[in-house]
TrEMBL record:
Superkingdom, natural source: Bacteria
Domain Transposase IS204/IS1001/IS1096/IS1165 DDE stretches: 157-400
Protein name from the UniProt record: ISL3 family transposase
Domain Transposase IS204/IS1001/IS1096/IS1165 zinc-finger residues, every copy: 40-85
Origin species: Streptococcus rubneri
InterPro entries: Transpos_ISL3, Transposase_DDE, Transposase_Znf
Coiled-coil segments on the chain, per record: none
Length: 418
């Protein structure tokens, strides 16, 4: 008996009416046999005196893991029968809500893991519940749109949440909070959403940053009369570095797949992308080269494989440098000088840069940093990678809102409300 009491404590079962009868260790998991019983209550419907009846067939309640083992509680609940009207009642407990199969504490754990950005399949797996249980818990998060407020600086972007489906995301640039996630990115979808705000609220928006290939310029100007439309630096640099990456891949594919050059270009792609000023001098052992080399030395070897790679790398680094140092004139004259002789991949990007020259210059004048947007981008990438359940747009949306709009310190509050 002592030991069984000890189990209740360990499991954190607070309901004193739950008595543990037995404990089975099957090797792979643990089972706790328990009963729920308490003095006869009054009848719910006629307030007459009830009497103890039998015990209900046991319900199997998956519980939190105990010392690394999956744990199942087999609970038999006392039934009562009214002496006056004959109605039956089942005993109730805080361990599981009425008519529920999942323990309250397990639900809280699911909520906590959703906030911690754990993939939904992993949550289901680790807590021995179905993914639909996890999704049901996800749906308990409710986010309301505040129609009385819009941030001064918004960022607009789009993300594919499943194949061929894009969603539109507006974010507060300063706090990173999501202002809107829309299912679709058509002009009508965006207009209908923002027209729910009064013109006065919309007038508060001073800056909207967006990607350079954005089809949203016009609609943004119409909806937000006081906003300056600016390209954001994050995307400008991203276009440049993606182009560099594609050129590396093109050149890499000219080598045999088993060749040393191919393997090195594949393995050390990041060194080419990186700002050359940030390459470290520390030497490490590099299995591909069978020697200790610093990042700079590895890079030098990569560039020695191809004249074309070296030329584009140098150009790429120089453009990055001018951009970061806000030397707009140097940046654009370099583009104009080289556009006719570079790889077509660079040519395409350069053409867009020239076309949006004024907006790029706006971007350089604004004192905002890219770090925040980059963080959001990466976060959404992680959420998408763990995308089970996101055939449904609302699940995708809720997950992003949980990740970005719930602050860590509020977690406990949210938990206690669920
Ligand atoms: Zn009754």
């Amino acid at each position: 008996m002592e030991q069984l009491n000890f189990i209740t404590n360990i499991l954190g079962i607070k309901d004193k009416n739950i008595i543990i009868l037995d404990y089975l260790d099957s090797g792979t998991h643990k089972e706790i046999i328990a009963k729920l019983d308490y003095p006869t209550p009054k009848c719910h419907s006629c307030h007459g005196q009830m009497a103890k009846y039998d015990f209900q067939k046991e319900s199997k309640i998956p519980y939190l893991e105990c010392a690394g083992y999956k744990t199942l509680i087999r609970l038999r609940k006392r039934r009562f029968r009214c002496k006056v009207c004959g109605k039956m009642a089942v005993s109730e407990t805080s361990l599981v809500k009425k008519n529920h199969q999942i323990a309250t504490i397990v639900k809280q754990k699911i909520t906590q893991k959703l906030i911690e950005k754990v993939p939904m399949t992993s949550i289901a797996e680790s807590l021995s519940v179905s993914t639909s249980t996890v999704i049901r818990q996800l749906h308990k998060f409710k986010f309301k749109t505040n129609l009385n407020y819009l941030p001064e600086h918004m960022n607009w972007d789009e993300y594919g949440f499943k194949k061929g489906k894009m969603s539109f995301i507006a974010q507060d640039y300063d706090t990173r909070k999501i202002v809107a996630i829309l299912d679709g990115r058509t002009q009508a979808t965006i207009r209908n959403h923002f027209l729910r705000y009064s013109k006065q609220v919309r007038s508060c928006v001073k800056v909207i940053t967006m990607d350079m290939f954005s089809p949203y310029y016009d609609i943004a100007r119409k909806l937000f009369p006081n906003a300056k439309i600016v390209l954001d630096r994050f995307h400008i640099v991203q276009h440049l570095s993606r182009a560099m990456n594609r050129i590396r891949i093109q050149i890499m594919n000219q080598f045999d797949r088993r060749s040393h050059e191919y393997k090195a270009l594949k393995r050390y792609w990041k060194l080419i992308q990186q700002d050359s000023r940030k390459l470290s001098d520390k030497r490490f052992y590099r299995p591909i080269f069978r020697s200790h080399l610093a990042n700079k030395e590895v890079l030098e070897k990569l560039l020695s494989y191809s004249q074309e790679l070296r030329q584009h790398y140098d150009l790429y680094q120089l453009l990055l440098f001018h951009f970061q140092e806000k030397q707009t004139d140097h940046f654009f004259s370099l583009i104009e000088e080289t556009i006719s002789s570079v790889n077509p991949i660079f040519q395409t990007v350069f053409k867009t840069f020239l076309k949006d020259k004024d907006k790029i210059m706006n971007a350089l004048e604004l004192p905002y940093s890219n770090a925040k947007l980059e963080a959001t981008n990466n976060l959404i990438k992680v959420i998408k990678r763990n995308a089970f359940g996101f055939r449904n747009f609302d699940n995708f949306k809720t997950r992003i809102l949980i990740a970005l709009n719930i602050k860590k310190e509020r977690t406990n509050l949210v938990l206690s409300r669920l």
